[in-house]
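Exercise 7. Given the encoded structure of a 193-residue chain, write a plausible sequence.
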């Protein structure tokens, strides 16, 4: 019985080249889909409401960063796959806006407000003092992964200016000394903010 063999065009080319060279075509090894597993439940829950929403990319990225504290490579790959965006577009958008970060933050995220009310109340002095004490610049994390120093535009607590926010705790009417004392305390006690 005559057996028909279907050869894809790319395979045809390899077979032709091999027969010309007298060598076997390269063996293609399927290494599996690195995202063969479904997204973790918490990520799936973030992405689910955004399916079929062509304008939801930035919102989804913001929500993922709010949950994890950063955008990991796998997060971006899952966004592309689950929401149907080209991966290049997801990476392009994530890297275009400087509100997104790609490394896990330290245990304590220290955000110094640079909004108008805080600025006129010398929040820049607080920022410089904390930067000196911690030995890191803005958007950097201390080598022990304890503190990440950040700036924000306004925390909505202008009556308490100048404001420093440590994780979810808002510290109002700060000075450079008071802000550093609050962080030193966290460093010594290891307490959650
Ligand atoms: S300007 Fe700092 S809280 Fe509004």
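Solution.
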């Amino acid at each position: 019985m005559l057996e028909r063999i279907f050869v894809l065009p790319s395979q045809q080319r390899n077979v032709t080249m091999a027969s010309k060279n007298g060598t076997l075509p390269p063996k293609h090894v399927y290494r599996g889909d690195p995202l063969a597993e479904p997204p973790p439940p918490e990520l799936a829950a973030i992405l689910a409401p955004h399916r079929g929403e062509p304008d939801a990319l930035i919102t989804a990225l913001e929500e993922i960063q709010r949950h994890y504290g950063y955008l990991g490579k796998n997060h971006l790959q899952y966004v592309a796959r689950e929401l149907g965006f080209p991966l290049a577009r997801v990476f392009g958008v994530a890297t275009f806006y400087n509100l997104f970060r790609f490394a896990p933050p330290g245990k304590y995220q220290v955000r110094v407000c640079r909004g108008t009310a805080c600025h006129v109340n010398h929040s820049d002095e607080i920022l410089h003092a904390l930067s000196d004490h911690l030995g890191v610049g803005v958007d950097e994390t201390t080598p022990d992964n304890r503190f990440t120093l950040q700036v924000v535009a306004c925390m909505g607590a202008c009556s308490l200016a100048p404001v420093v926010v440590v994780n979810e705790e808002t510290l109002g009417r700060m000075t450079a000394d008071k802000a550093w004392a609050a962080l030193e305390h966290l460093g010594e006690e290891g307490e959650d903010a």
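Remark. The domain at 108-189 is CATH 3.40.30.10 (Glutaredoxin). Students should compare their own answers with the one above.
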